[in-house]
Design brief:
This protein is an alpha/beta fold and about 775 residues long. It is built from 26 helices and 24 strands. An 8-stranded mixed sheet has the order 15-14-13-12-11-10-23-24, with helices on one face. Strands 16-17-18-19-20-21-22 form a 7-stranded mixed sheet.
Length: about 775
C-alpha cells in the first residue's frame, strides 16, 4: 500500500503546480531538495510521510517541465503560411475532411523559409490521402485554439502538445516512410482488419464492430453514436479496460485451475489485442490498467489492485502529467477502481436476490447469465456517474437497463469478431461466415441502444457540484485503501461456458443461424416497389427496391457513414450488389458518399448525365467505378425490369458540357410501377424545369420530389406533374427551402426528411403507402 500514498502525493503535487501561478522548474527543484532533507529527518519514524512529501515535490517538478507553447505557435494568427512536416499519428478521417497531427519542421511565410518545431493540428479541406509517416506540405491560416464558455479547446489540445491549428488547409504529400516502422506495421494491420470488416458486413454493423473491436468510430453514423451516448453505452465504442478484461477473462477461463498459465494467456491476449488495434496512448493506458488487474488477481493479493492502479497513475502521469485532466483517463481509472471495489460484492448480492426470487432450477441459469454483467455494469456506472454528470451535465436514465441488455453479448462480439478478423488475413471465406454470426449480437446491441435512445427522457439534464464529486471519489479511494477488495467479474459466466462449451456453442450457433435465416426470409422481395428518400443530411439520396428485389440508388449525398448506415438498414445483409446507380450531376455534395458505397457494393450499371468534371472527388469515384458499365443518358432513355418497373430519363435534352451550369443539366428520372410513379428531380434548376416542358416532356407523377430541397420550383412544372404527394429532402440546420415553393405546393400532402426522417413509400402498382423512419 506504500505505493498508493506515493501516488497520492505525486498527484497532489501535479495538481498544485497546475493551479500555481509560479511553475518555474528551479523553484520546484529547490522544493525537492528541501523535501529530501526533511525525508531524511523523518525516515526513522515517519517513512510513509517522508515518501509522500518527496513524491509531492517531484510531481510539482514534473508538471513544471510541461511545455506551455511551441516554436511554431509564434506564427499563430499572423496570416496565411505554409508548413512542412511529418504526420505523427493515424489520420482522423471524417465524412468530408481529414484531421492530421503534423510535427512541423519548416515554416514558409512571405517568401521566407525557416526551421521550426511543434505539433500542428491540420484540418484538410477534403479527405486527404496523407498517411502516418508521410512528409506533407500544408498551406492555410495558422490559428490559436479557441476558448469556449464551458470548454477550453486550447487546454484540451495542449495536453497532447498541440498549440496551433491550421483549418481549411490545402495538403500535399511530399514523401512517405518517415514514421516508426513498428507503428507503420501496426497501423497497416489495423487498416487491413478494418477493411475486412467493411467488406464483410453492412452498416451499421461494420461501423459498430470497428468501434467495439478496433476503437475506430469514424464510420459510425452520428445518430447512432449519439444514441450510444444518450443511453450510457458509449464506452462500448472505444477501446477500454472493459474490452481487454473481457478478452482476458475468456482466455483465462480456458486454463482454469492452472493459475500461472491462465494469467499468461490473459496478459498475452491483452498484448496481442493492443498491437492489433494500434497501441495508441489511450489503448496503452487501458492495457496497462487491465493487465495489472489480471496480474493482481493471478497472484491473489488483495492489496494489489489499488497498488497497481497507483503504479499506473504514476507511470502515465510521468509520461504526460496533463493526462490527469483527460476525461478518458479519469473514466478509465475510476471505472477500473469501481470494478475492483464493487463488482464482486454487487455480484454476490445479485446472486442472493435471484436465489430468493426464483426456483433453484431457474435461479442457477439466471445467476450465470445476469449476475456478473449486471454487477459489473453497476460497479462501473456507480463509480463514473459523478464524472459524466460533472463534465456533460446530463444523466442517462436508460443506462443501467441498456447495459444489462447489451453487455452479456459483448464477449461474443469481441471473441467471434476478433477471431474472424484474424482469420480474414489468411482465409477470408471462412472469416465471412464468422462475421455473419456477429451480425446477431451487433444488431441486438444497435437496436437496443436505438430503441432506448428514442424514448422520452432517456437522458436528463443533471448538474452536480464539483466539491461533491471530489468528496465522492475521496470516499471511494479511502474505502479502496481500507478494504483492498479483489474484484471478480464474469467468473460465473466463464465457468458456465467452459463447463458446457459444446452445448453452449451449439445453442448459440443455432440461435444465430435461425435469426440469420429469418433475416434473409424477411428481406426477400414482397412484390411491391419500395422507394426511400434517405435522410442523409439534406442531400439527394434515393434508394428503390423493385418487386423482384433489384435495387436502384440515385445519388448518395455528402456523408459516407450516413449513406452506408442507411443502405445497411435496408439492403439484405448478404446482398452486396446494387443493380443501377444513377448520378444525377457531378456535384460533389450529391455523389461524394457514393465512393464509399461502391467500395462495399458492386454496381451492375452506372447512369450519368455525361457532364465532364475534373475535380478530385469525381476522379476518385471514376477510379472506384472502374470497369463497371457506365452510360451517359439523356431524355428518352428507358430501363425496364422484368417485374414491370420502368425507369425513364426526362432531362437533360442533350448532354451538358463542362461549362454548363450543373443544375441545368441534372438528370430528372421517373420511376414507375403500374399506375404509381415517382418523379425524382435532384437539384434541377428552374430553367431546366422550363426546358423540360418546352421539349414536350410530360412530367406526370404520383409523387414529386421537390428540386434542391424545396429551394426552387417552376409553377408550370409543378402543375404539369399533377402530383398527389410531395416529398422534400432537407436539412433542419440549413433550412434551404423557399417559402414561395411551399406556398406553391399549397394543400398537397408534404413529407420532409428534416421533420420526420427517411421517407419510405411503397406501392403494389395501384395503392400507395407511406411512413417516415428515424
Amino acid at each position: 500500500m506504500r505505493l498508493v500514498y506515493i501516488a497520492l502525493g505525486w498527484t497532489a503535487g501535479i495538481i498544485l503546480a497546475a493551479n500555481s501561478t509560479t511553475q518555474f522548474p528551479l523553484i520546484w527543484l529547490a522544493l525537492v531538495v528541501l523535501a529530501l532533507i526533511a525525508a531524511g529527518l523523518l525516515w526513522r519514524d515517519w517513512r510513509i510521510l517522508a515518501l509522500t512529501l518527496v513524491a509531492f515535490t517531484l510531481g510539482g517538478l514534473r508538471f513544471s517541465l510541461v511545455p506551455t507553447t511551441s516554436l511554431i505557435a509564434a506564427y499563430n494568427n499572423l496570416g496565411g503560411l505554409t508548413i512542412e512536416g511529418v504526420v505523427v499519428d493515424e489520420p482522423d478521417i471524417r465524412d468530408y475532411y481529414t484531421i492530421l497531427r503534423v510535427a512541423a519542421e519548416t515554416v514558409t511565410r512571405a517568401g521566407s523559409t525557416v526551421p521550426t518545431e511543434g505539433l500542428v493540428l491540420v484540418r484538410a479541406q477534403s479527405v486527404a490521402d496523407a498517411q502516418y509517416g508521410d512528409r506533407v506540405r500544408a498551406t492555410g491560416l495558422l490559428i490559436t485554439p479557441a476558448e469556449f464558455d464551458t470548454f477550453s479547446y486550447a487546454d484540451y489540445l495542449a495536453r497532447s502538445g498541440v498549440f496551433s491549428i491550421m483549418s481549411r488547409a490545402s495538403v500535399e504529400v511530399l514523401s512517405s516512410g518517415h514514421g516508426s516502422p513498428l507503428n507503420t506495421t501496426l497501423l497497416t494491420l489495423k487498416h487491413q482488419a478494418s477493411s475486412s470488416i467493411n467488406h464483410a458486413l453492412p452498416e451499421p454493423a461494420a461501423g459498430l464492430l470497428n468501434g467495439i473491436l478496433l476503437g475506430d468510430e469514424s464510420s459510425i453514423a452520428p445518430e447512432i453514436r449519439d444514441a450510444f451516448a444518450v443511453t450510457g453505452a458509449a464506452h462500448l465504442l472505444a477501446i477500454s479496460g472493459f474490452n481487454m478484461v473481457v478478452l482476458a477473462r475468456v482466455m483465462q477461463g480456458l486454463f482454469r485451475g492452472k493459475r500461472r498459465l491462465a494469467a499468461t494467456a490473459g496478459i498475452l491476449s491483452i498484448v496481442i489485442y493492443t498491437l492489433l488495434v494500434g497501441a495508441t496512448p489511450p489503448v496503452l493506458r487501458a492495457a496497462l490498467m487491465s493487465g495489472l488487474l489480471v496480474i493482481g488477481e493471478s497472484i491473489r493479493r488483495k492489496t494489489f489492485v489499488p497498488t497497481s492502479l497507483a503504479f499506473a497513475v504514476i507511470v502515465l502521469s510521468l509520461i504526460n502529467p496533463t493526462a490527469l485532466w483527460e476525461i478518458g483517463f479519469q473514466l478509465s481509472f475510476f471505472a477500473t477502481l469501481g470494478l475492483a471495489l464493487l463488482a464482486t460484492p454487487l455480484t454476490e448480492r445479485i446472486d442472493r436476490l435471484i436465489a430468493q426470487l426464483f426456483p433453484a432450477s431457474v435461479a442457477g441459469f439466471l445467476r450465470n447469465l445476469l449476475s456478473e454483467p449486471l454487477g459489473v455494469s453497476l460497479a462501473a456506472q456507480l463509480s463514473t456517474i459523478p464524472l459524466t454528470a460533472l463534465y456533460f451535465g446530463q444523466l442517462s436514465l436508460a443506462s443501467l437497463v441498456v447495459n444489462l441488455l447489451v453487455v452479456p453479448v459483448q464477449p461474443a462480439i469481441l471473441i467471434v469478431g476478433g477471431l474472424a478478423t484474424m482469420i480474414a488475413f489468411f482465409v477470408f471465406p471462412l472469416a465471412q461466415a464468422l462475421y455473419w454470426i456477429t451480425l446477431v449480437p451487433l444488431a441486438w446491441t444497435a437496436e437496443v441502444v436505438r430503441w432506448f435512445a428514442a424514448m422520452p427522457n432517456a437522458q436528463i439534464e443533471f448538474g452536480i457540484d464539483p466539491r461533491l464529486v471530489l468528496l465522492f471519489f475521496a470516499v471511494l479511494i479511502g474505502w479502496g485503501m481500507a478494504q483492498a477488495t479483489q474484484p471478480e467479474w464474469l467468473v460465473q459466466l466463464a465457468r458456465f461456458i467452459r463447463s458446457r462449451v459444446v452445448q453452449t456453442s451449439t445453442v448459440m450457433a443455432g440461435i444465430c443461424v435461425i435469426v440469420l435465416t429469418g433475416a434473409v426470409a424477411a428481406s426477400r422481395p414482397d412484390g411491391m416497389l419500395h422507394v426511400w428518400l434517405l435522410d442523409v443530411g439534406g442531400y439527394n439520396a434515393v434508394l428503390a427496391q423493385t418487386p423482384h428485389g433489384a435495387h436502384y440508388l440515385i445519388d448518395g449525398g455528402n456523408f459516407p457513414s450516413r449513406l452506408l448506415t442507411a443502405l445497411g438498414h435496408r439492403l439484405p445483409f448478404n446482398d452486396r450488389e446494387i443493380e443501377v446507380v444513377a448520378i444525377t450531376q457531378p456535384d460533389e455534395a450529391n455523389f461524394r458518399a457514393l465512393s464509399a458505397a461502391l467500395e462495399r457494393y458492386n454496381a451492375r450499371i452506372v447512369l450519368t448525365n455525361g457532364q465532364p468534371n475534373l475535380g478530385e472527388a469525381w476522379t476518385e469515384l471514376q477510379t472506384i467505378i472502374g470497369n463497371t458499365e457506365q452510360i451517359a443518358v439523356t431524355a428518352g432513355y428507358t430501363l425496364e425490369a422484368d417485374d414491370g418497373t420502368l425507369l425513364e430519363v426526362l432531362h437533360p435534352q442533350e448532354q451538358p458540357t463542362i461549362d454548363d451550369n450543373l443544375d441545368d443539366g441534372t438528370l430528372v428520372l421517373r420511376l414507375s410501377y403500374g399506375e404509381v410513379s415517382f418523379l425524382l428531380t435532384s437539384d434541377t434548376s428552374r430553367a431546366a424545369q422550363q426546358t423540360l416542358l418546352e421539349a414536350g416532356q410530360l412530367p406526370l407523377a404520383t409523387v414529386l420530389q421537390l428540386p434542391r430541397g424545396g429551394a426552387t420550383l417552376d409553377e408550370g412544372f409543378f402543375a404539369a406533374t399533377q402530383a398527389q404527394l410531395v416529398v422534400m429532402q432537407n436539412n433542419s440546420a440549413s433550412r434551404q427551402e423557399n417559402p414561395d415553393v411551399l406556398a406553391l405546393v399549397g394543400n398537397t400532402p408534404l413529407f420532409r426528411t428534416d421533420q420526420g426522417g427517411t421517407i419510405h413509400l411503397w406501392t403494389d402498382g395501384h395503392n400507395l403507402w407511406s411512413v417516415q423512419e428515424r
